[in-house]
Amino acid sequence: MSTNEKALTPSPPRGYYTGKGTAAGALAKMVGEGRSIAKQERSRWQTNRYMYRGEQWSTPRPGAQASSARLSMMVDNPKGRKRDTFNRLRQMTDGRVSLLTAQRPPYEVVPRGREQGTIDAARQATKLVAAKWDESGWNVGGSIREMVLNGEIDGISFLHVYYDPNCGDVSHIPFDTTSGKPVDSVEHYEALSGADPNGESLWSYRAMKLGDVCWRVVRPGAISVDPSAERWSDCRWVVESRVFPRSMIEDQAGAKVEDIIKLSVERTNRSPSQGQRPDVAVPLNVEDQAGTSDRTVAGRDEFLVHEAYIKPGGDWPKGAHIRWLDRAPGSPLTMEPYDDYCLPYRPFNPKPDGGHFMRCRGTVDELAPIQQRFNRILSLVHEWLERVARPPMIVPIGALRNQEIFNDKGIIEVHPIGDPHFMPISSEPVAVLTQHLQWCVSQMAEIANQSDAIRGFSPGQGVESAVGIQTLAQNSETQLSGTAAQVATAIEWGLSRSLELVAKNYVMPRLISSAGVDDSEELRAFTGSQIRGADNVRITASILPQSRALQFQTLMQLAPVVGADIRPHVARFMEGSYDEFINAETAQRSRQKRENHALAALATLPIKDQVWTDFSGLKAQFMEGLQLAAKNGSINPMQDALARGIHPPLVLDLLRTAGINVPTVEDYDDHTAHLRMLDDWRLSDGFDAVHPMVRQAAREHAEDHKKALAGKLTSMGSQQPPAGAGGAGSKAAPKGQPSPPKQPGQAPGANAPMPVAGAN
Question: Does this model's pTM top 0.90?
Answer without folding.
Answer: no
